[in-house]
Amino acid sequence: MADAVVVGAGPNGLTAAVELARAGLSVQVYEAAGTVGGGARTEELTLPGFRHDPCSAVHPFGIGSPAFGALPLARHGLEWLQPEVPMAHPFPDGTAAVLGRTVGQTAASLGPRDAPVYRRLMAPYVGHWESMAADFFRPPWAGLPQDPYRFARFGLAGLPPVALLALRFRGAKARGMLAGLAGHAITRLTGPLTGAMAMMFALAGHERGWPVARGGSQAISDALAGHLAELGGSITTGVTVRKLDELPPARAYVFDTSPTALARIASLGDAYRGYRYGPSVFKIDYALDGPVPWTAPVARRAGTVHVGPTYTEIGDALNRAVVGRPPQTPFLITTQPSVVDPSRAPEGKHVFWAYGHVPRGWHGDATDAVERQIERFAPGFRDLVLARAVTGPAALAARNANYVEGDIACGAFAGLQTVLRPRLAAIPYATRRPGVFLCSSATPPGPGVHGMSGHNAAKAVLRHLRRSAARD
Question: Residue ranges of the alpha helices (H) in 64-171?
């Protein structure tokens, strides 16, 4: 009998497996796809030699993850590459707001009226990433925060919607940049904790950067898998688990799946009946004949570019996706990994991806809308396109079962579910079935390639096994 069986070899499943193996447990991992990775994979989606990330490409929370930081992933091939500029937010006049490596660089890009406001907002947290990350990514039962003062101060600033946070600023650049940062949550800008989302992305940029993994996001998953093998764990790919009794006997089962998939596999009935999924995205991966010709020079040096200048335009694009309306002028999150990693494309060529937000399960084609938006800020972009791989909600869900109807966050950020994922429970990783746990991004702290949901779930498993052993 294995000590633990993990279903799903995405970053959270692999991190959970590693944490359990580090504790001396025998661990087996089963993955439906032909390779490990989940949301952190790299494939030639367009043309030979162009290596694309089908989902996540830039990793501010990966490089800043307490879980990843405690593991010898560099020994297993993971190398972070930092673009000169973490993120640029261009405007039609050729200027841009910049999320830089320092608060000062960022503040200067926002204009003289808003620069001091931004410094006052972010300065109290700079230099304290370790305690901030530990407090905000920790499991719910972890007790008092490491830094109660900053935890409380950050909470007071970030708990309100980014709509209120933006009112502190007077200029379009600052308001637009904050809206773009909050847009990663794929929810209305009036939603609670969207201010905290924007501030955490900004702080990560200042403290750890927004890097890419050399060779692609697959390097993260491969490094986790390599370390697991080093610890004696095993991974079996190409196995779709439909029922719990299809798995070998184990003392604990850990699922890196959606809550609804877990309920089906483990016969949990209506355990997650109230769980809601959010909007989807429409993603395009490009093989380009040259770099993106941004009119804002600083955007050409950025790893990530947010396309959609104003707070109002971004808010409208997000609202349309939330209420089920097709995209009109989408807000785009774009990445250009080959700016800092030339190994991702043949010499002189580039890879680039962009996604805009669309309703969950939407079946339309947003290619023209996406490319018209890029052309606003990079005229001549279409002339550089050698090939494109278009992925809508249905294709996203087919590629990764955790993306229910294309929801890449594995759950909506709305109402109480913003903080109580996947349901109200003292231990959100545990289920009503003893020994069965959930570790996907549907659990705290939520989406992102940081492994912390898996890390926290592994801690819950170890607590369960210790208590079971004590009873026996």
Answer: 66-69, 103-109, 115-122, 129-136, 148-158, 162-165
Q: Is the pLDDT assigned to residue 139 strictly greater than 90?
A: no
How confident is the model at residue 469, as a pLDDT? 85
The partner residues of 235 in beta bridges, in order of sequence, read 29
**Rg, the chain, Cα only:** 21
Helix H or strand E encompassing 466: helix 452-471
Mean pLDDT over 356-374 rounds to 97
Whether residue 155 is predicted with pLDDT greater than 90 in this model: the reply is no
Where do the H-state alpha helices sit in 211-270? 218-230, 259-265
Condensed to tens digits (0 to 9), the pLDDT of residues 191-211 reads 989 999 999 999 999 999 999
Q: At what angle do helices 311-323 and 172-182 cross, to 10 degrees?
A: 30
Integer angstrom CA distances of residue 171 from 80, 101, 301: 34, 21, 24
Phi then psi dihedrals of residue 23, to 5 deg = -80, 0
Average pLDDT, the chain: 96
- Tokens 């994922």 sit on residue: 421
Tokens of 436: 């069965």
Average pLDDT (55-72) is 97
Residue closest to 59 by CA, chosen among 224, 204, 200: 204
Q: Where are the alpha helices (DSSP H) in 208-310?
A: 218-230, 259-265
Tell me how far CA of residue 228 lies from CA of 55, 221, 273, 356, in angstroms. Answer: 23, 11, 34, 35
- Please state, in angstroms and rounded to a whole number, the distance separating the CA atoms of residues 41 and 391: 15
**Chain centre distance of CA 37:** 13
> Is the pLDDT at 140 greater than 80, yes or no?
no
Q: Identity (one letter) of the amino acid at 64?
A: G
Q: Are strands 85-90 and 96-99 parallel, antiparallel or unpaired?
A: antiparallel
Q: How far apart are CA 20 and CA 14, in angstroms?
A: 10
Task: Calculate mean pLDDT across residues 94-119.
Answer: 97
Distance CA 382, CA 147 (A): 49
CA dist., res. 289 & res. 345, Å (int): 10
- Distance separating alpha carbons of residues 192 and 354, to the nearest angstrom: 26
Question: For the segment 288-301, what is each residue's pLDDT rounded down to a tens digit?
Answer: 999 999 999 999 99
* Burial (CB count <10 Å: 0-12, 13-18, 19+), residue 151: middle
